[in-house]
Amino acid sequence: MAILYGLLIIVSGVFLLMVTAITVRYGRLRRLMPKPAFRNIDARPKPDEWDDGEVTITWIGHSTLYINFFGTKIITDPVLGSRVGISIAPGVKIGPKRYTPPALSIEDVKDVDLILLSHAHMDHFDMSTLKALAAPHVRVVTAKNTKGLLRRLPFGDVMELGNKEEGEPVSELRVKAFPVRHWGSRFPWNTNYGWNGYILEKRGRRLVFSGDTAWTEEFKSLCKEGPIDWIAIPIGAYLPISFQGAHCTPEQAWQMVQDSGAKMVTPIHWNTFVLSQEPVDEPIHRFVKAAGEEKNRIVIHDQGKVFRLDHSFVDREVDDLTQTNPKNVQPSVVIQARGSSSPSRSRTILDQ
């Protein structure tokens, strides 16, 4: 019994040291970060009214998208709570708070068929949200060696995919993982956790969820699967410059869209949590500027907006963005990409 108590004390001590170290690091970084006021959103999608014979997409916030793919309902990296980070007690977390609310609630997406998880970082793999969504009818696709995080949740099935592996987690839906340039550890000792982007294919249409990535040439290979109809690409968390080892700049994001050959794009991983030092509206301005005359390929730039594949769609507010010239917008810093199979250790405050 004494040995057991001793082990509990050691484990508790290690956990407290880890929480203290993360809290101190977060405090130091936070002093240099923007502090936006809370923002309400104008659009509230109604997915229960969407047509199962179409492909319909909305951006809930950060890297969370809700997709009706010909009747298959998919949610990516679901994070629907008010805060992300380390849970220290039921309902209590240490970490960044949302400044933009989610466009949909847990109740709105309870009928989801498939959850896609790109990697185990806490702003992408939120246990509170996953617990709320767990049900026998829900399937999950996740990165290599992360399935164990879900072992106590009542999902119908959990499929792990490594780079370029594929499966059919839901009838008629093909999911293939592709390599991106990031890394996967949730805590310092999770060095074997994987990280993915995903290609989704159904009835000859292809969608791409990129997860989180720095610039990589891997996107050039996506068109080998066939024409890409739509891609979600991350555009935020690139400052300070050291973060660009794991997160692309908006200009690099646009180049990867071009490399993929995708017809339409939705920028994600911005305007939800403050994770880095760039001004919160800078990513979308730089992304639109990089797109230039092709800016109308950008669909959904606000949480809650809806895009239907093959429908005429122009987000008029994208044009408005090009008329402004926000301060503090700096040129892209181009860095030499390393192989995407090698994890980058440049991280945001939540890359733990």
From TrEMBL:
InterPro entries tied to this protein: Metallo-B-lactamas, RibonucZ/Hydroxyglut_hydro
TM helices/strands, residue ranges: 6-26
Any one Pfam family match given in the protein's UniProt record, by short name: Lactamase_B_2
Keyword terms: Membrane, Transmembrane, Transmembrane helix
One GO CC term, this protein: cytoplasm
Domain of life assignment: Bacteria
Ranges of residues in domain Metallo-beta-lactamase: 60-247
PANTHER family according to UniProt: N-ACYL-PHOSPHATIDYLETHANOLAMINE-HYDROLYZING PHOSPHOLIPASE D
Name this protein carries in UniProt: L-ascorbate metabolism protein UlaG, beta-lactamase superfamily
Lineage, opening ranks: Bacteria, Bacillati, Bacillota, Bacilli, Bacillales
